Amino acid sequence: MNTNYQLPENMVNILEENKNNPDSFVELIRDGGYVPPNMDLLVDAISALSMGKNILLKGPTGAGKTKFAETLSHLFNQPMFSVNCSVDLDAESLLGFKTLTYEEEKQVIEFIPGPVIHAMKHGNFLYIDEVNMAKPETLPLINGVLDYRRTITNPFTNEIVTAEGGFNVIAAINEGYVGTVPLNEALKNRFVVIEVPYIEGEQLKNLIQTNTKLADEATIDLFVKLSSDLINAVSQGKLSEDAASIRALLDACDLAVLIPSKRAIQRSIIDKLDEEREREFIKNLTETLF
Q1: Domain of 209?
Q2: In 3D, which of 52, 54, 5 has the Cα closest to residue 193?
Q3: Is 228 inside a domain boundary?
Q4: What is the dihedral sign for C-alpha 225, 226, 227, 233?
């Protein structure tokens, strides 16, 4: 296994000098980056990736898993190739495909690398989103990529591809959704699992201020309170996780700059829900707050 995973020098220094002060990582994250509710999440993810381990980000929809992955890619100065899993995901979607092209007026077959092959050959990050949406028989194709071998035999070219130094894998999972399947143990054991919870309180307020156009502090505070109430309702089983999506909340904050907040919530959060009971619950909550 190639273990040439080097952190940027300033991050190495921070890891060594501030082991008991993980908040120092905040200065490395640009505006719009993911600042987790518990900085241990960031330290643990950085530590795992620097040792060549794959990480699996596990948490509710809209909690910021993709943003977390993008932030890690930025911190390691690594481009990131992405795979969006679905029931239609196949070997070509992962590895690439053959196509006809011309060389000096002669027709030849050319292989176009997919995200897995591309990331391996360039020593970049690979992000596999909603990994449990893929059919169980698809992902074992890359088992050798995910373990100590970091190698795959490309079935389309018979080329043996070994990952360059710097290559690593970040995957994300939403559990319990329609169309998802449990990860088999062989796949799960190839990852270090990091739970990604919702962002709340002051961190959510800062996120709204830096990632939306909403500037009125009183209105921002109301949206932070709305998010807290939605998260509590999810934990009590009154709402599905979709209702507390931070992504949807940020959309509502943006819309609230131009239209009334209650309508912004209606369009961004309420109208996405299928169950009338959940819709009414959030309508009543919105009326109370706004």
Answers
A1: 201-289
A2: 54
A3: yes
A4: positive
